[in-house]
Inverse folding.
């Protein structure tokens, strides 16, 4: 299994996510800025890249392209199934919000 890259400028949040994933048996690497993340992406392969985009809706097309690449021909439910599994695995049912006809948004917790 390839590692998961966590990109977040808030060190404590990145460490919390890494710790949670490590408890589930995942190997993680962290980058605290975009330049370091780009450097790591050039040198390594990852199973998943988690970017910190709280309260910003990400369009479905953007998510498809970032995760599977521009030329991927996937079933339209592929993203929904992966988001469902991610919510369940991380216990983030209330944090990852579906935005109808747009995509998904990571909600900031209070």
């Amino acid at each position: 299994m390839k590692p998961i890259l966590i990109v977040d400028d808030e060190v404590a949040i990145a460490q919390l996510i890494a710790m949670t994933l490590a408890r589930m048996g995942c190997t993680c690497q962290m980058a605290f800025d975009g330049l370091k993340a780009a450097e790591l992406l050039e040198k390594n392969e990852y199973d998943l890249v988690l970017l910190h985009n709280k309260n910003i809706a990400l369009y479905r097309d953007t998510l498809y392209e970032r995760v599977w690449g521009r030329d991927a021909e996937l079933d339209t439910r592929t993203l929904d199934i992966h988001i469902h599994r991610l919510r369940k695995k991380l216990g983030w049912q209330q944090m990852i919000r579906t935005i109808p006809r747009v995509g998904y948004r990571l909600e900031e917790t209070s």
In short: The first strand starts at residue 4 and ends at 7.
